[in-house]
Design goal:
single chain; about 350 residues; alpha/beta; Glutaredoxin; Glutathione S-transferase Yfyf (Class Pi), Chain A, domain 2; 10 strands
C-alpha cells in the first residue's frame, strides 16, 4: 500500500528572497504545505522550538526530517510526488545549466551585491537592531553608511548580471531558460535575485538598470511572476501554524527518510580527518553566512551530497537535520553544545 507523503511545513518570512525559491517551487509543482512564519531577525522561537540553532531562512520540514538550505530543499522536493510533473531537467547538459545558474546566483556574491542596493530609507533599515542582527549573520560590521559607500560597485556588478542574462540565455527571445513550455527549475535558480531587486522601488536606478535597457530580462521576470500567481490560485492557500503547532506537526509525523538507508562514507576526506563514524557527535554550520550558529547532533549519514544529524527538540523528541555538503562544515563535536572542534 502506498504511504501518504509526510506533511510539509515551511519556516520562512514573506520578504526573504531565498524563501521565495522554495515557495515558488511548491506552487509551480502544486505541492500542498503549511507554513510557520518567522521574524525577519533573531530570535526565531518557532525554529528554536525544533532544537535548531541554524539562523537562515527558509527551513523545510518533511515529516520529522528537516532540511536546511534551498540548495538541498529543491532536490528533495523534486524527488517527491512522482505523479506531479517535475520542474528539473532530465538531461546531463541541462542539469549542468541548473547547477551553474545556482552557483551564479548563490555562490558568486550576486546576492551580497544586491543587498547593498537596498534603499537605506526602507523602514527595517532604520532599525539599529537590523544591522546588529545582519552583522552577526554576515560576520562583519554593517551600517547604512557602509551600504551607501558600497553601492556604486554593487550596482556595476548587478548591471553586469542583467546584461549577462539579456545577451546570453534570453538573447533569442525564448520564454524560459531551457525553452520549456513553463518555468523550470533552471528559471527558479536564475530569476530570484533579479525578481527581488526589480520589485523594490529605488533599488535600481533607471539610467543603469531598467526595462528599456534589459527588456528580455524584465519580460522574463513578469512572465515568471504571472506563472507563479496562476499556480498559487490552483493550490490551496497554505495553513499558517504558530511555532508550537508546527512543532507538534513535526514531532507527530513519521520519518520522511529511513535511517537504515543512511551510511557514513568512510573514504570522505572530512570523515577521515575528523575520525567520524555513524552515531558520533558532530557540529554542522554554514561556511559563508550564519556560520557562528552550529547545530550539534548524532551523525546519521554523510555522503558527497548531504550530512544528516539527529537532534532533540525543546520537548526532547528526535528530529533529523539535513544539510548539503556544499557550503557547510562538518566537525567532530568536542566540548559543550555549540563548542565544536574547529
Amino acid at each position: 500500500m502506498k504511504m501518504a507523503a509526510p506533511e510539509i511545513v515551511l519556516y520562512h518570512y514573506g520578504i526573504s528572497p531565498f524563501a521565495r525559491r522554495t515557495v515558488w517551487y511548491l506552487a509551480l509543482r502544486g505541492i500542498p504545505y503549511s507554513q510557520c512564519l518567522q521574524p525577519g531577525m533573531l530570535p526565531r522561537p518557532g525554529v528554536a522550538r525544533l532544537g535548531i540553532s541554524y539562523r537562515r531562512i527558509p527551513i523545510l520540514s518533511i515529516g520529522r526530517d528537516i532540511y536546511l538550505d534551498t540548495r538541498l530543499q529543491l532536490p528533495k522536493l523534486e524527488a517527491m510526488y512522482p505523479e506531479l510533473p517535475r520542474l528539473g531537467s532530465s538531461t546531463p547538459e541541462e542539469k549542468g545549466i541548473e547547477r551553474l545558474l545556482s552557483a551564479f546566483t548563490i555562490d558568486s556574491g550576486l546576492f551580497q551585491h544586491a543587498v547593498k542596493l537596498l534603499p537605506t530609507d526602507l523602514p527595517f533599515l532604520k532599525d539599529p537592531r537590523y544591522f546588529k542582527d545582519r552583522g552577526d549573520f554576515m560576520g562583519a560590521e554593517l551600517s547604512a553608511e557602509g551600504m551607501k559607500r558600497a553601492r556604486p560597485e554593487a550596482l556595476r556588478e548587478i548591471a553586469a548580471a542583467f546584461e549577462l542574462m539579456e545577451t546570453t540565455f534570453l538573447a533569442d527571445g525564448r520564454d524560459w531558460i531551457l525553452k520549456t513550455e513553463r518555468p523550470s527549475l533552471a528559471d527558479i535558480e536564475a530569476v530570484w535575485v533579479f525578481h527581488w531587486l526589480s520589485g523594490i522601488p529605488g533599488a535600481l536606478p533607471e539610467e543603469q538598470v531598467s526595462a528599456d535597457k534589459f527588456p528580455r530580462v524584465y519580460s522574463w521576470i513578469k512572465r515568471f511572476q504571472e506563472a507563479v500567481t496562476s499556480a498559487k490560485k490552483r493550490l490551496d492557500k497554505p495553513k499558517t501554524l504558530d511555532g508550537e503547532e508546527a512543532a507538534r506537526v513535526v514531532e507527530g509525523s513519521s520519518w520522511h527518510e529511513e535511517e537504515e538507508e543512511g551510511i557514513v562514507d568512510g573514504n570522505d576526506p572530512v570523515v577521515v580527518a575528523e575520525g567520524l563514524e555513524k552515531g558520533c557527535l558532530v557540529a554542522i554550520s554554514p561556511t559563508d553566512t550564519g556560520r557562528a550558529h552550529k547545530d550539534v547532533g548524532r551523525l546519521v549519514s554523510l555522503n558527497g551530497d548531504e550530512v544528516v544529524v539527529e537532534v532533540e527538540t525543546a520537548k526532547g523528541m528526535s528530529v533529523r537535520v539535513h544539510a548539503p555538503r556544499h557550503g557547510f562544515k562538518v566537525r567532530r563535536f568536542d566540548g559543550e553544545k555549540g563548542g565544536a572542534k574547529l
